[in-house]
Write a structure and sequence with these properties.
Layout lengths: L2 H16 L12 H11 L3 H23 L1 H4 L9 H18 L5 H26 L7 H39 L7
Helix pairs in contact: 1-2, 1-3, 2-3, 2-5, 2-6, 2-7, 3-5, 5-6, 6-7
């Protein structure tokens, strides 16, 4: 394993995850992009899953216990419904592994849009399943997805933005640092 490359890739993902503490519109976040970024560049695919999930967990700790501390009223280890978000991250990584076999503008855009759709479908399904506000039938499921639509465009814009920054910066870094090329 190329340790320098691993550290830089992990650093990109951790920095992206930490950007969640910067004020931003709801759902304008790096979650999908850090997942496809890991899928595209880690040669050992277990790190494609582990690093984005760790980064998300670490940033959740900060977001939940600094930004939303008053909302939760005490130390919060896991965001309610975290398993839906983390499950979405794992599915995005799987999609990214297939979509981003070759990194180029088309595959990055396709991976980013796929990440947005997967996150939307999985997390809103989780809201429907766990929230008594929604009837447990197709009508309730459609209500949950409909309620998520106003936030979806921020997910898409966020994933495209962060993907552009992360992939663009790393591709540029690869041209300047031979150690960042695949082993």
């Amino acid at each position: 394993m190329n340790k320098k490359r691993f550290i830089v890739l992990s650093g990109f993902i951790i920095i992206a995850a930490l950007s969640r503490i910067i004020p931003h519109p709801y759902n304008f976040a790096p979650i999908g992009s850090m997942s496809i970024f890991g899928a595209a560049y880690f040669t050992d695919k277990k790190f494609s899953f582990l690093v984005p999930l760790f980064a998300m967990f670490f940033s959740d700790l900060l977001v939940n216990n600094l930004l939303y501390a008053n909302f939760y009223g005490g130390f919060t280890l896991f965001t309610p419904g975290f398993y839906w978000m983390y499950g979405a991250i794992a599915l995005i990584v799987v999609a990214g592994i297939f979509i981003l076999k070759k990194v180029n503008t088309t595959t990055v855009i396709a991976g980013s849009l796929s990440a947005s759709v997967i996150f939307f479908l999985v997390t809103n399904f989780g809201v429907w399943l766990s929230n008594p506000m929604y009837p447990q039938g197709i009508e309730g499921l459609l209500m949950s997805y409909t309620a998520g639509i106003p936030f979806f465009h921020y997910t898409v814009i966020g994933d495209l933005f962060y993907s552009g920054v992360m992939f663009g910066a790393f591709e540029y870094a690869k041209t300047k640092t031979p150690a960042f090329q695949r082993a």
